[in-house]
Write a structure and sequence with these properties.
about 350 residues; mainly beta; 2 domains; 6-stranded antiparallel beta sheet; 5-stranded antiparallel beta sheet; 26 strands; globular; binds zinc ion
Length: about 350
């Protein structure tokens, strides 16, 4: 039961904080990858970084080595653990149970991959003001050489000068995620295994101020409401219900029921919630967009015949937008391979098509 509560808390926290931090959070997810005049959507795909060329409707492994066959671990974009697209850079963490973790910066304009650091585990770097921040772990050992625990440090990397600075003076007990930021401070939360530990620092990760979790402001900029999510468990599957809560009266009213899977995205300046549901369309294959400011809902597109949606959800930092386009994993129902294609949708116009990635 505790796990469920934690999961619900996590999902609510992600939901609420994402809707709240309209600028901070949304800027991180809006990456128009307009490199060399192309429209490229990057995603991790079967352990590799794959680029989906939206204009030419083609997919290929995003490997800068023309002689590489992308079949083994020597391929620089294989064994990918985490990926984030940040303007002209891809940041990724490579590693698994067989190879050590390393953090990389892929300069897309010049087609060069730089190793940033080696570690035990890492968050994916997020860029703020032209520099990227990430948290990387190392092991603490006892006198006999046994691992006692993982400890985490905060780093800042400058992709222009390649300078890497360790910012934390003392290590932290858990992974630290970026929550939001303004002109002078960054808010973080540290995963300590229990309640999330919120705190803010200046841009040098100094002058730490702890924040009472219950004091976190979840209000939307535009209105007098907050949005709350609630998970509904039924026969081993779960769906999510979203409510809007009047901040003056506390009155709750339902906005969406039966959300199957979802992610956050932007249409222009409108920050919203992209989702599929088994209720509205009865098959889960239609995509809807909730405007987080006005609470209006509109239908975006239905997956082409012969395909079904695998999941709208995307692990934070793994795949994002390319202009107005998002990619959603789908399955060609005549194929034996699950999750074998990417459905590319323009969430402003509804234009959509499927790109299959042949191995
Ligand atoms: Zn390769």
């Amino acid at each position: 039961m505790k796990k469920i509560i934690i999961l619900i808390l996590c999902i609510c926290t992600i939901l609420l904080s994402s809707c709240n931090k309209s600028k901070g959070a949304s800027e991180q997810t809006n990456n128009g990858n307009d490199i060399h005049g192309e429209m490229l959507y990057y995603a991790t795909w079967n352990d590799r970084i794959v680029r989906f060329d939206i204009m030419n409707k083609r997919a290929s492994v995003a490997c800068p080595d023309p002689l590489c066959d992308h079949k083994d671990i020597d391929c620089p974009v294989m064994a990918i653990d985490k990926l984030s697209v940040q303007g002209n850079y891809l940041y990724f963490v490579k590693g698994n149970t067989n190879i050590d973790f390393k953090v990389y910066c892929y300069d897309l304009l010049n087609g060069i991959i730089y190793e940033i650091t080696e570690c035990v585990d890492s968050t994916v770097p997020i860029m703020i003001n032209e520099k990227s921040y990430f948290c990387a772990a190392y092991y603490e050992y006892d006198d006999d050489g046994n691992v006692i625990r993982e400890l985490w440090d905060m780093y800042r990397y400058n992709p222009i000068t390649k300078e890497l600075n360790k910012l934390s003076t003392d290590p932290w007990p858990g992974m630290i995620y970026l929550d939001s930021y303004d002109e002078s401070r960054i808010t973080w939360n540290c995963d300590t295994g229990g309640d999330p530990l919120y705190f803010s620092t200046d841009y040098d990760f100094m002058n730490i101020l702890y924040i009472d979790y219950s004091d976190m402001d979840f209000s939307l900029d535009a209105g007098d409401y907050s949005i709350e999510g609630q998970i509904v468990w039924d026969a081993g599957t779960w769906s999510e219900t979203l409510f809007k809560v009047d901040k003056t009266t506390g009155e709750r009213s339902m906005i969406i029921d039966g959300v199957a899977t979802s992610r956050y995205c932007e249409i222009g300046d409108t920050f919203g919630y992209l989702y599929n549901t088994y209720f509205h369309s009865n098959d889960g294959n239609t995509l809807y967009f909730l405007d987080c400011s006005t609470f209006s809902i509109r239908k975006i597109a239905t997956v082409p015949d012969g395909y079904s949606i695998v999941d709208v959800f995307v692990e934070y930092g793994n795949e994002m937008q390319c202009g107005d386009y998002v990619g959603i994993r789908v399955t060609n129902i005549e194929s034996d391979v699950y999750s074998n294609s990417m459905w590319i949708i323009n969430i402003r116009t509804g234009e959509n098509f499927v790109i299959s990635f042949e191995e």
